[in-house]
Amino acid sequence: MAALATLPPLPPQFKSIQHHLRTAQEHDKRDPVVAYYCRLYAMQTGMKIDSKTPECRKFLSRLMDQLEALKKQLGDNEAITQEIVGSAHLENYALKMFLYADNEDRAGRFHKNMIKSFYTASLLIDVITVFGELTDENVKHRKYARWKATYIHNCLKNGETPQAGPVGIEEDNVDVEENEDAGATSLPTQPLQPSSSTYDPSNMPSSGYTGIQIPPGAHAPANTPAEVPHSTGVTSNTIQPTPQTIPAIDPALFSTVSQGDIRLTPEDFTRAQKYCKYAGSALQYEDVGTAVQNLQKALKLLTTGRE
């Protein structure tokens, strides 16, 4: 991919999008689609913040040039030309990164790479808003990922061993500030304390990401940030991929034919198309389980009129 034009210095007004732009740069070669939408999010957000002062106008103009160049380079990519495919691609990528970090956390393997994965997942969920409002599950995943990055980063920085897995979030206390260090975040002014009401992502519906079914313990994505974990003073075991859980296939689907009295609505066709797109996106990450589940959903909907 051809090199993109360099952006001018980031205006202070745009501090809130600096990490999204950094994520875009990190993905220019790793996943250009992700890089494109990170810049699109930054562009849309920057326009809302300040599009009038000269330095902001200059920055946004150069960012627009980058977007146009990327769109031209990716012109034949369905994830760019079709929003439904782009949305599925981005959601699947963000959730894979979240699950990688969550699996490392629950296994007690604390390192800079997993902190960055948590934080990057939260940034990518921000980016999903270019397609519309976030689902409640997306919002909860974003809050948990950003808080976890904060908590673990500060524990390691202070020489403390983090508590693995969900330890509870005081809802009114989650106010993280962005920090240049480690691409993560800094702790809120008041330390978070375990509460009686713990937030556990594993208790959330598996269909939290717009119908994409992800089995617990999914393997780390191929596109997880590849930097080498730094020494943290905390023992870290060798990362081993977790075997994928392949869902059982309903035998009835093999012999199912559409009933003559089934009348599918335009919305049914749209949902079936989404399931097929999600399956295709999952296969890009070699996630057979997710692909099979979504294809079964599409087939059942088309042959029975029900999900």
From TrEMBL:
GO terms for cellular component: cytosol; endosome membrane; multivesicular body; nucleoplasm. It comes from the Eukaryota. Residues 266-303 form the Vta1 C-terminal domain. The gene is VTA1. This is Vacuolar protein sorting-associated protein VTA1 homolog. Residues 185-198 have a biased composition (Low complexity). Interacts with VPS4B. Interacts with CHMP1B. Interacts with CHMP2A; the interaction probably involves the open conformation of (polymerized) CHMP2A. Interacts with CHMP3. Interacts with CHMP5; the interaction involves soluble CHMP5. Interacts with IST1. Belongs to the VTA1 family. Residues 199-210, 232-245 have a biased composition (Polar residues). The keyword Membrane applies. Residues 177-246 are annotated as: Disordered. Its main location: cytoplasm. Keywords: Acetylation, Cytoplasm, Endosome, Membrane, Protein transport, Transport. It is found in: Cytoplasm; Endosome membrane. Coiled coil: none annotated. It holds the Pfam family Vta1_C. Residues 16-158 form the Vta1/callose synthase N-terminal domain. It is a peripheral membrane protein. InterPro entries: Vta1-like, Vta1/CALS_N, Vta1/CALS_N_sf, Vta1_C. The keyword Transport applies. GO terms for biological process: late endosome to vacuole transport via multivesicular body sorting pathway; protein transport.
